[in-house]
C-alpha cells in the first residue's frame, strides 16, 4: 500500500489555474464521492484551500493511481488536464507524508507559520471521515500531521509574532489592556485601512466600537458593515475621553489630534493608558502626543517594523521546524514499511492455524472418547501454543525499521513456510509423518 | 536543617531563570515542582521546630525571616496557580534564596522569653509576615509593570514584552496584593499596639517592652510603611494606577525589607527578642 499525493499550490501554480481546481465551491462531499469510485485508489482526502488543491490517496500501484487521479481532475472540473499537468506535483509515501506534515506545520504556507492551515487540514480529514473515504493509511497520516502541526507550534517560534499590521496592532492592544471585551475602540476615518484594523480588534471581542468621519454618511456606512456606532465629527474630543484604543486613518493633510487635545482627554481618563494607532499617511496624530505619560502612540512605520522583525524571526525558526518534520517523516516511513509485513504475518497465521486444524481433524478418532470439556481444553491448548509460537516472529517483523531488511525477512518467511504455495496444507499429513519418522530415527536429520 | 529548603529554592531559582530566558514550558514546570517541594520541605522544617519549641518559630528576627520566606513561597505558588503566570518567579525566588540564606547561616533556635507567651504576639507577627509577603509580590509585580510599560512606550518590543502578562493584569494583581497586604499590616500594627500597652502594665518588667514607642526605629518604620500603602490605596482611587502605583509599591517594600532585616538586627531596642 502506498500513500500518493497529487496537487497544486501557490508555489507551483498561478491563481488563474488554481481557481479552476477549487473543490470547495461544489462541496468536498461531491469530490470525495467521485474519487471513492475510482478503481485504483482505496482511500482519499481532498485538501482544498485558496492556496492549494491536493488529493491524498492510498493505492497499490502509483502509476495507475496517477492516471486515475488525472482522469478524475479532468472529469470533475471539466478541463483539459494537459494545461494543468505541468503545474502538478506528486509525491509518494514518505515524501507525500513530508509534504502533508510541512503543510500542517505551516511551512508550505504563503505566510510561513500561519495558523489557519492546520484547521483546514483537520476539516479536510473530517469531511473524508464523514464521507467514509479514509482507511488505515490516511487514518494514520492525517492525525499524525495534526501532531506535527502542534509540535511545530509549541516547540518553535514559527507561528509567533504578528505578521500583518492589523494583527500587530491587536497584539499590542492585548499586551496593554489584556482582555479587550470591556474596552472602547474609536475609529477616526472611514477608509480601508481603518476598517481592516477595526475588524481585527472586533475579532478579539471588542464590544463597543465607535466610528467617526468628517462625512457622517461615510462613518454610518462603515459602522453598518462592522457592527459599530457612528459618532458625529464635532463630538470627536468628547468621544476621545471614553476610548481606550484609537485608530486614526483619515486622509487629512494636517494632524487631527494635537498634543493639547490628547492631554485634555487624558485628564478625564484619570491616567488610564490610551493606545493610539496612527495608520494614516501623512500622519493624523502629532508625534509629540507620544511624549505624554500613559499614551502609547504607534504609527504605520512602527507597526511595519514589528511585522518585519517577526517575519525575520519566523524565517530563522524554519530550520528547527523542518527538523521536526524530518523526524516525524522517519517515524511514519517506519510505520508504513511495517505495514508491508502485514500480508506475510496474516499468511503465516493462516498457515499455522490450518496446520492446527488439520492435526486436530486427524486426531479426531483418538479424541472421540474424551469428555467434551477435555476436547475444549485440547482445542484451547493447541490454539495457545500456536499463538505463543507466532508472537515473537510477528513482533520482530513489525518492528523492523529498515524496509530492505523487512522485505528480505518477509521473503525468507514466505519461502521457508511455502506461504505462496497454492494449497500448502494438502500434503501436510505425509510431510508431518515423514518428519516424525526422521525424528524417531535420531534427530540428526535436522541441520 | 534550613539548608535543605535553601538548596531547593536555589535550584528552583535557576530553573525559573532558565525558563524566563528560554521560555521552555518543561523547564518552567520543573521550576514550579522544585519550588513546591522546597516549600514542602520548609513546611516540614517549621513544623519540626514548632514541635520542638512548643510554639511557631517567630520569636526572633532570624526565625521570623525564615517563616516569612516560607509564607512568601506559598503565596507566590498560590498566585502562580491562580493566574497561570510563571514569569514573575524569576523575580521572587532570588528573594527567597537571599532571605533563607540568613536563616541557614544562623542555625540557632532562638528561645522565646516568657513575655512573648501571648496570643496577641502570635497574631501580631503572623499578620505582619503575611503583609510583607503580599508586599513582596506587589513590589515584584510593580517592577515588571514598569519594565513592560517602558518597552511598549519605547517601541522596543523584546524581552519583557514576550514574557510578561498584559499591563492591565499586572496592574490588577498589584492592586490586589497591596490591598491584601494593607489589611494584614493594619491588623498587625493594631494588635501589636494593643499587646504592647497590655505588656507595659503587666507584671513582667522588660526594658524592650518599655522601649516600644514611635521613637523606636522598627515601630516607626512600620508606621511609615502603613502610611505609604494607605497613600497608594487612596491615590489608586483617584486614578493613580499603573506606573505610580508600581513605584509606590516598590518604595513600600524597600522600607519593609530595610525595617525587617538591618533595623531588626542592629537598630531596634524594642523588637530584639532573638537573644
Can you characterise this structure?
- The complex is a heterodimer of chains A (447) and B (275).
- Chain A is an alpha/beta fold and 447 residues long.
- In chain A, 57% of the residues lie in helices and 12% in strands.
- Chain A contains 17 helices and ten strands.
- In chain A, the strands form two sheets. In chain A, strands 7-6-5-8-9-10 form a six-stranded parallel beta sheet, with helices on both faces. A four-stranded antiparallel beta sheet of chain A has the order 2-3-1-4, with helices on both faces.
- In chain A, α8 (165-177) packs across α9, α11 (236-242) packs across α12 (259-268) and α13 packs parallel to α16 (403-416).
- Residues 426-447 of chain A have low confidence and may be disordered.
- Chain B folds into two domains: 1-111; 113-275, no CATH class.
- The two termini of chain B are 21 Å apart.
Supply database-style keywords.
heterodimer, A: 447 residues, alpha/beta, Beta Polymerase, domain 2, Rossmann fold, 3 domains, 6-stranded parallel β-sheet, 4-stranded antiparallel β-sheet, 17 helices, elongated, disordered C terminus, B: 275 residues, mainly alpha, 2 domains, 0% strand
Short structural summary:
The complex is a heterodimer of chains A (447) and B (275). By secondary structure, chain A is an alpha/beta fold.
What name is given to the CATH topology of the largest domain in chain A? Answer: Beta Polymerase, domain 2
| The CATH superfamily title of the largest domain in chain A | Glutamyl-tRNA reductase, N-terminal domain
Find the structural class of chain B using helix and strand composition.
mainly alpha
Q: Which range best describes the helical content of chain A: under 10%, 10-25%, 25-40%, 40-55%, 55-70% or over 70%? A: 55-70%
Structural class of chain A: alpha/beta
List the strand order in the largest sheet of chain A.
7-6-5-8-9-10
Q: How would you describe the shape of chain B?
A: globular
Rg for CA atoms of chain A: 34 Å
Shape of chain A: elongated
Mean pLDDT of chain A: 86
- Percent strand of chain B equals under 5%
Instruction: Please tally the helical runs of chain A, counting DSSP H or I stretches of 4 or more residues.
Output: 17
Beta percentage of chain A is: 5-15%
Q: Please provide the count of β strands of chain B.
A: 0
The span between the termini of chain B is 21 Å
Helix share, percent of chain B: over 70%
The low-pLDDT segments of chain B are none
Largest sheet of chain B: none
What oligomeric state do the depicted chains represent? Answer: heterodimer
Number of beta-strand segments of chain A: 10
Amino acid at each position: 500500500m502506498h500513500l500518493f499525493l497529487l496537487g497544486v499550490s501557490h508555489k507551483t501554480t498561478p491563481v488563474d489555474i488554481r481557481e479552476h481546481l477549487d473543490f470547495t465551491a461544489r462541496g468536498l462531499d461531491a469530490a470525495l464521492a467521485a474519487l471513492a469510485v475510482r478503481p485504483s485508489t482505496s482511500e482519499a482526502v481532498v485538501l482544498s484551500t485558496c492556496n492549494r488543491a491536493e488529493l491524498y490517496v492510498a493505492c497499490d500501484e502509483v502509476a495507475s493511481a496517477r492516471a486515475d487521479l488525472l482522469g478524475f481532475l479532468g472529469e470533475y472540473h471539466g478541463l483539459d488536464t494537459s494545461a494543468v499537468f505541468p503545474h502538478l506535483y506528486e509525491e509518494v509515501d514518505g515524501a507525500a507524508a513530508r509534504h502533508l506534515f510541512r503543510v500542517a506545520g505551516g511551512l508550505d504556507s504563503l505566510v510561513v507559520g500561519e495558523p489557519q492551515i492546520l484547521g483546514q487540514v483537520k476539516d479536510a480529514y473530517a469531511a473524508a471521515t464523514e464521507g467514509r473515504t479514509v482507511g488505515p493509511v490516511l487514518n494514520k497520516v492525517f492525525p499524525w500531521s495534526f501532531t506535527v502541526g502542534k509540535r511545530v507550534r509549541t516547540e518553535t517560534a514559527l507561528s509567533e509574532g504578528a505578521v500583518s499590521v492589523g494583527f500587530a496592532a491587536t497584539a499590542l492592544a492585548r499586551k496593554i489592556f489584556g482582555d479587550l471585551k470591556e474596552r472602547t475602540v474609536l475609529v477616526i476615518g472611514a477608509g480601508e485601512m481603518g476598517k481592516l484594523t477595526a475588524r481585527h480588534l472586533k475579532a478579539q471581542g471588542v464590544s463597543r466600537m465607535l466610528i467617526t468621519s468628517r462625512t457622517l454618511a461615510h462613518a454610518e456606512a462603515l459602522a453598518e458593515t462592522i457592527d459599530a456606532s457612528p459618532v458625529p465629527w464635532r463630538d470627536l474630543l468628547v468621544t476621545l475621553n471614553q476610548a481606550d484604543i484609537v485608530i486614526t486613518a483619515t486622509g487629512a493633510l494636517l494632524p487631527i489630534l494635537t498634543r493639547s487635545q490628547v492631554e485634555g482627554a487624558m485628564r478625564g481618563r484619570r491616567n488610564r493608558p490610551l493606545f493610539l494607532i496612527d495608520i494614516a499617511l501623512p500622519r493624523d496624530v502629532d508625534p509629540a502626543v507620544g511624549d505624554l505619560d500613559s499614551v502609547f502612540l504607534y504609527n504605520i512605520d512602527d507597526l511595519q517594523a514589528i511585522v518585519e522583525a517577526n517575519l525575520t524571526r519566523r524565517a530563522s525558526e524554519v530550520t528547527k521546524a523542518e527538523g521536526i518534520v524530518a523526524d516525524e517523516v522517519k517515524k511514519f516511513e517506519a510505520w508504513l514499511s511495517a505495514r508491508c509485513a502485514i500480508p506475510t504475518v496474516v499468511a503465516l497465521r493462516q498457515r499455522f492455524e490450518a496446520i492446527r486444524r488439520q492435526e486436530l481433524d486427524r486426531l479426531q478418532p483418538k479424541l472421540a472418547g474424551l469428555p467434551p470439556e477435555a476436547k475444549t481444553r485440547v482445542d484451547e491448548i493447541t490454539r495457545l501454543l500456536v499463538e505463543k509460537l507466532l508472537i515473537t516472529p510477528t513482533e520482530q517483523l513489525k518492528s523492523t525499521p529498515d524496509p530492505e531488511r523487512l522485505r528480505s525477512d518477509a521473503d525468507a518467511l514466505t519461502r521457508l513456510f511455502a506461504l505462496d504455495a497454492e494449497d500448502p496444507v494438502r500434503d501436510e499429513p505425509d510431510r508431518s509423518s515423514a518428519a516424525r519418522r526422521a525424528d524417531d530415527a535420531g534427530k540428526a536429520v535436522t541441520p | 536543617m534550613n539548608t535543605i529548603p535553601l538548596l531547593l529554592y536555589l535550584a528552583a531559582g535557576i530553573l525559573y531563570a532558565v525558563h524566563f530566558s528560554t521560555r521552555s514550558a518543561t523547564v518552567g514546570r520543573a521550576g514550579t515542582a522544585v519550588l513546591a517541594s522546597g516549600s514542602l520541605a520548609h513546611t516540614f522544617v517549621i513544623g519540626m521546630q514548632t514541635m520542638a519549641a512548643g510554639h511557631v518559630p517567630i520569636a526572633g528576627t532570624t526565625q521570623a525571616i525564615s517563616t516569612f520566606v516560607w509564607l512568601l513561597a506559598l503565596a507566590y505558588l498560590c498566585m502562580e496557580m491562580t493566574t497561570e503566570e510563571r514569569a514573575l518567579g524569576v523575580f521572587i525566588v532570588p528573594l527567597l534564596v537571599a532571605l533563607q540564606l540568613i536563616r541557614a547561616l544562623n542555625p540557632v533556635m532562638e528561645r522565646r522569653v516568657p513575655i512573648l507567651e501571648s496570643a496577641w504576639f502570635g497574631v501580631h507577627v503572623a499578620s505582619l509576615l503575611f503583609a510583607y509577603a503580599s508586599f513582596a509580590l506587589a513590589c515584584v509585580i510593580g517592577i515588571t509593570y514598569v519594565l513592560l510599560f517602558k518597552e511598549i512606550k519605547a517601541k522596543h518590543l523584546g524581552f519583557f514584552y514576550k514574557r510578561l502578562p498584559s499591563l492591565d493584569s499586572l496592574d490588577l494583581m498589584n492592586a490586589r496584593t497591596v490591598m491584601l497586604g494593607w489589611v494584614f499590616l493594619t491588623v498587625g500594627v493594631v494588635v501589636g499596639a494593643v499587646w504592647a500597652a497590655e505588656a507595659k502594665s503587666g507584671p513582667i518588667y522588660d526594658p524592650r517592652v518599655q522601649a516600644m514607642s514611635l521613637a523606636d526605629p522598627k515601630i516607626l518604620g512600620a508606621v511609615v510603611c502603613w502610611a505609604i500603602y494607605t497613600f497608594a490605596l487612596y491615590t489608586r482611587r483617584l486614578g493613580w494606577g499603573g506606573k505610580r502605583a508600581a513605584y509606590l509599591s516598590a518604595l513600600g517594600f524597600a522600607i519593609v525589607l530595610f525595617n525587617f532585616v538591618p533595623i531588626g538586627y542592629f537598630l531596634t531596642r524594642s523588637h530584639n527578642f532573638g537573644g
